[in-house]
Design brief:
alpha+beta; Porin; 2 domains; eight-stranded antiparallel barrel; 1 helix; 8 strands; elongated
Length: about 200
Amino acid sequence: MAIRWWSRAQTRFAALSLIPALKKFLVASTALFLLSGLAAGQSKWIPGIEVFGGYSHLSLQSKDLGFENWTQMNGWEAALTIPHIYRGLGVTGDVSGHYSTPLEQYNYAVGPQYTWEFSRFRVIGHGLFGGAQTRVRQAGSTFVHASDRHRTIIVGGEVDFPLGDRFLWRVVQADLVSTSAFDNTQKNLRLSTGLIYRFGKH
């Protein structure tokens, strides 16, 4: 009798323990279904988003850092942009990394941009504000040792050419990158090129 009662109790307990999991599953399934329907029905309201990635070259003003007048650095740049918030005005977030034998520098900034359309070309100007990290690459150094974090201001623009509905070629992007590594002011030139993928409404 006791064994039968214990078996029934275990069965009831197992069933009761499944109720919260079933509730969570039902809530999640319902929410997913509703959100999927909403996204499908309101996709025309989703703003256009663009993702850029490509090669970048930085001419770093490095005399005050104890190196040559200009240190030539190769690297990469990536950006996430909402280009059309209001009549050509948008916002972009930008990150880049550049490397040479004595130095490396990372920049990350965000700010407004404005887009002009000329025939098939697209010309964009932007002003970005953020931070940077400049590191002296030497034996025994680490990512944070012999490095300096500081502000960065990036002013420039780019010329884009469409390659289809979703892809564009960033023919050239030219920026003046103002930094203050190790309490010195640098006016650096950054040139980039690469591909843009866009999705959402355009």
